[in-house]
Design a protein that fits this description.
Layout lengths: L10 H7 L1 H4 L6 H9 L6 E5 L4 E5 L3 E4 L1 H11 L10 E7 L12 E6 L14 H14 L1 H6 L5 E13 L4 E10 L6 E9 L4 E9 L3 H14 E3 L20 H6 L4 H7 L20 H12 L7
Antiparallel strand pairs: 1-2, 2-10, 3-4, 4-5, 5-9, 6-7, 7-8, 8-9
Length: 302
């Protein structure tokens, strides 16, 4: 999915980002390289949202806080600012730069929709769930194509969902295909369940990087945990909000993540990220569809 980039910039988008310094012209290669040079990466223990959770970033990864992540996602990669508003931080391998053709990254965000019951986890037929997700994506294609965007197909699981009931961590990967793109997109999702919501870690890359990300997934899973008082085990049914969906709907809602997360990987360099640069609309209806299906099954508190 990552292609060798050209030294030509998308002038209009770049001009909007660097209008003050470049006087409405595309930024120079030197300006972009300087932006990358000024990024302040972090390692070690990093507190998220005032003690909500902690990331323990090892030496083979590097982390940008919300401000740094926005510089990459918006100023460097050319995404609309609102697409990065909910991003807490950005993880990427320590040995790559945001400009490298083999770069992949993991956005970190938090959904405070409540405690997600996991009593359906052992009962889910993920093959049946996949079929529902595939149909939902196909049904939304008319709206996307009418708006001038290419159709998208959820090809299947790149890695079937796996849930660890001890650590309350869930992860899965989807193979996504866009019309006109020669290579499929990998959408790799990690969810860490907490007392008041879910920590989202999302990587988007090429399918040829699946094995690399799979190999790194144990490291990523071990990096993030909720702090004492915010952990899944700290849930108090008498006072805490319960999400109106369970594990199945959390995975199905990942199809909606295609809209937000693919948008976050839109570089201003020509030909860097292929399908990941596309911002797909119309998936909110899919989210509502899946929530409706699973809402009745998971409303009760454990």
């Amino acid at each position: 999915m990552f292609r060798r980039f050209a030294a030509i910039l998308l002038g209009g988008m770049a001009a909007a980002t660097f209008s003050a310094s470049a006087q409405n012209d595309a930024p120079t290669k030197a300006q972009i390289e300087q932006l990358v040079k000024n990024l302040q990466y972090q390692h070690g223990e990093i507190k998220i949202k005032d003690g909500l959770a902690t990331l323990s970033v090892p030496d083979n990864f590097k982390y940008l806080d919300a401000k740094g992540a926005k510089k990459v996602l918006v100023d460097l990669w050319g995404n609309p600012s609102e697409q990065a508003d909910d991003v807490i931080g950005l993880l990427m391998p320590a040995n790559v730069s945001p400009l490298d053709t083999n770069c992949w990254a993991v956005t970190v965000s938090y959904d405070d929709s409540g405690y997600v019951p996991d009593n359906d986890a052992s009962k889910i037929n993920y093959d049946d769930l996949l079929k529902k997700m595939q149909q939902g994506v196909l049904d939304a294609n008319k709206e996307r194509t009418n708006a001038g965007y290419p159709a998208v197909e959820l090809v299947g699981w790149a890695a079937a969902p796996r849930y660890d009931a001890t650590t309350h961590k869930l992860y899965w990967a989807k193979d996504i295909r866009f019309d006109g793109e020669p290579e499929d997109t990998l959408n790799y999702d990690i969810r860490i369940l907490g007392r008041h919501g879910v920590l989202d870690l999302d990587a988007v890359a090429g399918m040829n990087q699946l094995s690399e990300i799979e190999n790194r997934t144990p490291d990523i899973l071990n990096m993030a945990d909720f702090d004492q008082g915010n952990r899944y085990a700290d849930f108090n049914p008498h006072v805490d909000k319960v999400a109106k969906y369970g594990i199945a709907a959390l995975v199905a809602g990942g199809a909606v993540g295609v809209a937000a997360k693919l948008g976050l990987f839109r570089l201003i360099w020509v030909f860097i990220l292929g399908a990941k640069k596309l911002i797909i609309i119309g998936l909110a209806a899919i989210a509502a569809f899946f929530r409706k299906i699973f809402k009745g099954r998971n409303q009760s508190s454990p």
